[in-house]
Write a structure and sequence with these properties.
Elements (H helix, E strand, L loop, with lengths): L1 H12 L2 H12 L3 H6 L2 E4 L3 E4 L10 H10 L4 H16 L2 H7 L4 H34 L5 H4 L4 H24 L2 H25 L2 H8 L3 H7 L5 H8 L14 H24 L3
Antiparallel strand pairs: 1-2
Helix pairs in contact: 1-7, 2-5, 4-7, 4-9, 5-9, 5-10, 7-9, 7-14, 9-10, 9-12, 9-14, 10-11, 12-14
Keywords: Membrane, Transmembrane, Transmembrane helix
Pfam family, one: ABC2_membrane_2
Organism: Psychroserpens ponticola
Length: 274
Amino acid sequence: MLRLLKLELQKLLLNRASKVLIFISFILPFFVIILSSLRIDFFGFFTLELGHYGLFNFPIVWHITTFFASQFKFFFAIVVVSMIGNEYSNKTIKQNLIDGLSKKEFILSKFYTIVFFSAIATFIIFIICLVIGLYYSSINEVSLIFRDTEFLFAYFLKLVGFFSLCLFLGMLVKRSAFALAFLFVLYILEWIIFGLITWQANLSIAEKIHNFFPLQSMYKLIDQPFQRIAISKAPNGQEFLYDFAVHWYEIAIVLGWTALFIFLSYRLLKKRDL
């Protein structure tokens, strides 16, 4: 595993564009710190300070931060599809196989890189949440501080699943731009199908089916936190109006898609004439 990971990291770090995109991917989540300290004066009428509204207190900070940080995953998605695009355009994929790397090892090297960078991104978010939470929250009980940290695992799994999809699309079309275009088409297609099911059946059935689709299932791992914020400001007893938890079946669906994308990537490479 370490040999394959080292091989892939060498390729990425020798590419200037990849290095820049990886750097941006790891830096962007730190903007959550800037967001938490944001102070906006509305013409002297009132001042908006997000950090002082309890939005970054424990345990809700784990939910809010992972939700917003997951929106920045597109930059590393470009790196993932470029990994495949460059292999075909530079013909390094053929050279690697000639040098003794099996097709299975080739795909695994990409997957290990995805897991590696997802783990680093998750660790960065862990540090950011801890720093922001300790600064703004008065909670000092360990059990409350680390409550809701399952959102970190959901964030990690969301990245791995999304980047595995990007890997599969890169293998499918061999070109970075086309792979990203297919990603957008898939997003539109999921919503078109959702609309058709809603029209033919009803909204409840459509939502249940929609949650099994690749992109939507990844999104559902970390639900939007806005209703949770509103509920936290509402009178007691209303916390059950909205279910924001990370459920085991949502994890299972994304794990299933991830395994399928890696398997299909391998099958494509195995059957393709290089």
